[in-house]
Amino acid sequence: MANEPTPEPTAGPSWQAKQVYAMAVISLVVGLAIGYLFRGSQSPAAPPPQPAANAQSATPAGAMGRHMPSLEEMKQMADKKAAPLLEMLKTDPNNSGLLIQVGKIYSSTHQFKEAASYYGKALQVDPKNVAIRTEMASCLYYNGDVDEAISQLQQSLHYDPKDANSLFNLGMIKWQGKQDSKGALAAWQQLLKANPQLSAERKATVQKLMADVQMQGKS
Predict the structure, then answer these.
(1) What is the pTM of this model?
(2) Are 72 and 66 in contact (CB under 8 A)?
(3) CATH fold label, 17-218
(4) pLDDT digits (tens, 9 = 90+) for 116-127
């Protein structure tokens, strides 16, 4: 969805494959918009586990062929790329566009705590930006703050009860982060009900996840 999105809260560099899959899924499915993490706004929902969304390839251009950069190296890259924008923010601290750009730089390099901070500042200026709030929720989830991620998604749904990305990610986080199968199913049922315009492929993805959750409950 992406606004499509997934994960198991674990702060720090070592995520379990299950967590990464979950997060990636979070962004994927609805993919409508979390074209951000999960992309906050567009998320991929994918059956096969693949890191994406806003774990989308955080490997900076030019890094391929050498070695996978460490989180610290990625942070240094992000700091360097964000520096000109941060300089601009000194004279225009409430520029939501700049704040969002900085947030995206940090989220794309897996600096989720920093990304969430800048998204949060942007939302203070524009609290009804559902796509960015959903993006921030993904960052919070990746950083291990499951409850706050859910809280932010619920706030997104307060502004837009039909938002596919928010509903998709809410289901993923409740399932993966809280082991709340009923909550996940309820979110995805609402997603399908409120978004009849979803493509057959996206509907099938959500339905497959629902079937997986139900089978898991029977095992």
Answers:
(1) 0.73
(2) no
(3) 1.25.40
(4) 999 999 999 999
